[in-house]
Amino acid sequence: MVRKILLASPRGYCAGVERAVETVERALELYGAPVYVRKQIVHNLHVVRELEGRGAVFVDEETEVPEGGTVVFSAHGVAPSVHANAEARRLNTIDATCPLVTKVHVQARRYAANGYTVVLIGHAGHEEVVGTMGEAPDSIVLVESADEVERLEFPPGTKLAYITQTTLSVDETAGTIAALRRRFPDIYAPKKEDICYATSNRQWAVKEMLAEIDLLLVIGSHNSSNSNRLVEVARAGGVESYLIDDEREIDEAWLDGVGVVGVTAGASAPEKLVGRVCDWFRQHGVTDIEPYRLVSEDVEFRLPVELRRELALANAQA
């Protein structure tokens, strides 16, 4: 019988996701529907459906946007070829790439321009990885694990540097980096780690509460990298964990013999979904619902410059 719910902190939206979602909302206010969005603006089903309800149209590729249309690029970033295609179609582009992803793109370009072969630690096929590799496709090699590092071969004298996807497991990535340093002692490292503050903080918050809980529910969509990593962190610490889009995916069989349930949310999951999960437990007789700790994040990112410029013009004319 579940007697208590502990809420991890921090959880849910990060600054990059807030910025991306607000970018689409403000673009719809400014230009009216339809505003096109390349890929999911953030990896959350509820956010995408809500924005669709307001007039956003999600497309897989920028080439699907009618000529002259307005398109927002997602928080995960895009390759330079996407910008080139958009320009050729005379699209009004608003780039909502998270500034922390942009930092990785800049590093990739800089390392490649300086003659480095860049080892990118990340998940094949993830939109962020696709965008980053597009910055210097001939100079970037992708590895997903420490095991893959052992199979890397480079000609003698190759200058190496590494970068990482921003939403990885902190612990797993540390193992992969250690393997890289062992095999290639001269490999050049970023001055500051690439895994973003929100990903690190949410994993830390889960680790902190593992000793207090019997089960962890992670609210997030199944294609959300940082949400999946939270499940892995709990399981690696010996606590069973499940990823749910919302309260409707809770299986009561998971709760057999469970006294304390931890709840967290990935960086692209809105807080109202946490509220809905808490309400589900209240309806099932749980009254003790409390934050495990209260940790606030004060990171904020300004809206994309293209949008700020247009909003300023619109305000001046109003």
Number of strands: 12
**Total individual domains:** 3
- What structural class do helix, strand and pairing data support? alpha/beta
Which H/E pattern describes the elements? EHEHEEHEHEHEHEHHEHEEHEH
Strand content: 15-25%
Low-confidence stretches: none
CATH homologous superfamily grouping of the largest domain:
4-hydroxy-3-methylbut-2-enyl diphosphate reductase, catalytic domain
CATH architecture of the largest domain: 3-Layer(aba) Sandwich
For the record, what CATH class of the largest domain applies?
Answer: Alpha Beta
Protein traits:
40% helix; 11 helices; alpha/beta; 3 domains; single chain; four-stranded parallel sheet; 12 strands; 318 residues; Rossmann fold; five-stranded parallel sheet; 17% strand; Cobalt-precorrin-4 Transmethylase, domain 1
Gist?
The chain is built from eleven helices and twelve strands. It is an alpha/beta fold and 318 residues long. The N and C termini lie far apart (59 Å).
What does this structure look like?
- With 318 residues, the protein is an alpha/beta fold.
- The protein has three domains: 4-13 and 197-291, Cobalt-precorrin-4 Transmethylase, domain 1 (3-Layer(aba) Sandwich), CATH 3.40.1010.20; 15-97 and 301-317, Rossmann fold; 100-183, 4-hydroxy-3-methylbut-2-enyl diphosphate reductase, catalytic domain (Cobalt-precorrin-4 Transmethylase, domain 1, 3-Layer(aba) Sandwich), CATH 3.40.1010.20.
- It is 40% helix and 17% strand.
- It has eleven helices and twelve strands.
- The chain has a five-stranded parallel beta sheet, with helices on both faces. It has a four-stranded parallel beta sheet with strand order 3-2-4-5, with helices on both faces.
- Helix 9 (225-236) links the parallel strand 9 (215-219) and strand 10.
- Helix 1 (15-31) packs parallel to helix 11 (305-317), helix 4 (99-113) packs parallel to helix 5 (127-133) and helix 8 packs parallel to helix 9 (225-236).
- It is flat, with a radius of gyration of 21 Å.
- The N and C termini lie far apart (59 Å).
- The model has no long low-confidence stretch (mean pLDDT 96).
